[in-house]
Amino acid sequence: MLNNWLKIAFINYKKNWLSTIINLFGLTIGLTGFMLILMHWNDEESFEKWNPKKDMIYGFQQHNKKENTYSPSISYPIAERAVKMIPEIKDYVLFSGSGMGFKMTTRNKTIYQKDGMSVSQNFFNFFPFKLVAGSFKDALKNENSLAISTKAAKNLFGKTDVAGENVKFDNKNYIITAVYELPKGNSVINPEFVMLAYEQLKNDKEAWGNFNYGCFMMLDKDADPKIVQDKLLKDIFEYRAKINAQGSGVTSQKYLEMYGPQGSLLTPLGQMKLHGKAYWFGTGDFKTMMILFSLSVLIVILSAINFINLKTAQASQRAKEIGVRKAIGSNKSKLILQFLLETFLICFASYVLSLALTELLLPSFNKFFDKEIVMNDWHIYFYSFAMVLAVTLISGLIPAKYLANFKAIETLKGNFARSRHGIWLRNSILILQLIISSFFIIGGLIVNSQVNYMMSKDLGINGKQVFLVSFSENNPQPWLKYERIKNEMKKIKGVDAVSYGEAVAGSYRYSNSNMDYMDKTIYAQHGSMDYDYLQFMGVKLLKGRWLNPKLASDTINNVLVNETFVKQFGWTDDQAFKNEFRPGFDDKPYKIVGIVKDFNIKSLKSEIEPMVFFHYRATSWKRYNVYNIQLKLKPDDIPATVKRIKKYWESNVEPGYPFESYFIDKQFAKTFETYQKQQTLFTILNAMVLMVALLGLFALSSLMIEQKLKDVAIRKTLGASDKTLIIGLTKQFLWITLIAVLISIPISYYLMNEWLKDFAYRIDMPVFPFVLSLILLLILTFAVVSIKAYQATKVNLVKYLKYE
């Protein structure tokens, strides 16, 4: 029996070779997209899975309920009190710095070692890397303790058994307490060296408001994170508000509302990379991941629709076969199994082809997403094969049951061709396919419009030809270093101007603090700078004046603010100049002397925040944050100028340290990369969807028109013109396309409007994509169907009329 079924299957594959190829092609493309996106998702979910304690470790994120925003920061006293007051919290670890680099000296060599972390002493309790030498116990107990990776050990000493060895950097002597091997699995916490943030922790021990740290908390294995979050609010945040409100003239509840945090979120370590609201090491984009995954599934569904359509369209060709088999005793269940087997063979062949195509495309896919994915995870094969089985059941069962329900007597009489049920089913499924195609066209055009809008929007700042060079970590007095080299670097040929600014467009080094005026508080970014930095970056002054090096008060408490700062306080411009405010980063009042036009330094996805700018000497601690020097280059010969800057830097400023630099406009352009990739993916998916849909439409129209060739021959004999016949044959498909697009318009509008809500600066919903989708699909449908319709008008009349 099975052998007989296989013979019948291959006879039908050969007979309907075009449909077979289209089904193979569509399913292969769909399954390939599904597997690639599934591997991408699986890779994002795999971060920190190596950690045996991952189920007990939770990332802390504070919640500002007023703005509904999250931050990964915490203060030292909050973490310390949390572990003392909340029994479910067993331990915590703090991060104060990552990606650090120092020029390290041993007995034999001096090298620059990068990718270090500054943490609290319980780090290895949370991240038990494989120990190679030394001990994790008390590994970070002292300020001169240092733990290093095997890679760093080989760089410094040429071997890994170096526990107890000495290394010098940052003007201190350190003792190697432990050597560890980093995990092989995906991890964002993979430091080449780990040191204790000794001085910072000592200074911040009582600083409740210094949210300078990232934090993980280790909970009891039976703890409920939601209960712990409630206790954090009641026992920690409200306590902080109570002690800080004393003497401030406001109630503790008012203080909590003004300064927060008003809540927290604890997310398991293994979910922080993709699902965390705010992560010290950078979050993924789960929403985009879901969109990509959904689109890949839609393509598979489109392929399944093609299969269903083509199988039901071929029903008339197999009607007599089914009638004969039923007449000789075959039952309905056997017929369904036979048709499911035929479907499975096509699906399995597509699965094998998709595995080969996925392997072929994987290098380009990895390059696109900057990953190193390999096909070695059994989950990929399991879920993709499960998809094959699902497609087999969905695209096989519907036509199988449909065909198996034929009545033997009617099919043997040849009455099936006049049945209306098959037409209704095919038309309904074709409408669904065209709805999906229309959505892809509309979505692709809207994504393209939004990305182009962001790329062309005036940022209010000009980073063109501005070249930023970063200072190394080894700077005890960085502001003096900046002042020393500033005039020297102006003399380099090709350098037009030199300045410094802390808040750099496209950078992630931002400071945020509360700004208080009377009983009102807002949160604003603040950035130290040189006197002329805003002019240097092309920012426009709306009212007041710039900072002036001739005025001593401009290095004490005078500031510039942006428009949003003034608006959030509810002031007029004149009121802003008369009122003084107190920033959370200092203990003295500040006076506004100038208001600048709003400008973007973050991604256009975010709204412009209130901003305060002041000279780096205005605070006792901000001068220590001077971390770069910026140079505006003349356009004559930029590559040669960069070479001269690099040579001067490596010879006179930081010999032995890497030259870390970038152009600000190119750095800011990286904030668009996610959306440019979405634009590219939508374009690719659009092409795939249209190709699959149009091939399916062509095959379906071919089969349906073939069933009408006798009608065409009769009408042509009676004098119908080719034009009339073509219009008659294509009219049904054009109506189906029109209905599908009209149904897709409200669906597409809703889904794309939800996507646009993520952007603070977005286009208005355009009409053009909806109109173009309708026109384009009508044209393509007519073009595809009319090819077969035109061929139908050239039929041999004798062949179809000789028996009439």
Automatic annotation (TrEMBL):
GO terms for MF: transmembrane transporter activity
Record organism: Chryseobacterium taichungense
UniProt xrefs under InterPro entries: ABC3_permease_C (IPR003838), MacB_PCD (IPR025857), Macrolide_Exporter_MacB (IPR050250)
Ranges where the MacB-like periplasmic core domain occurs: 20-232, 431-647
Cellular localization per UniProt: Cell membrane
Annotated protein name in UniProt: Putative ABC transport system permease protein
GO cellular component assignments: plasma membrane
Membrane topology per record: Multi-pass membrane protein
Annotated Pfam families: FtsX, MacB_PCD
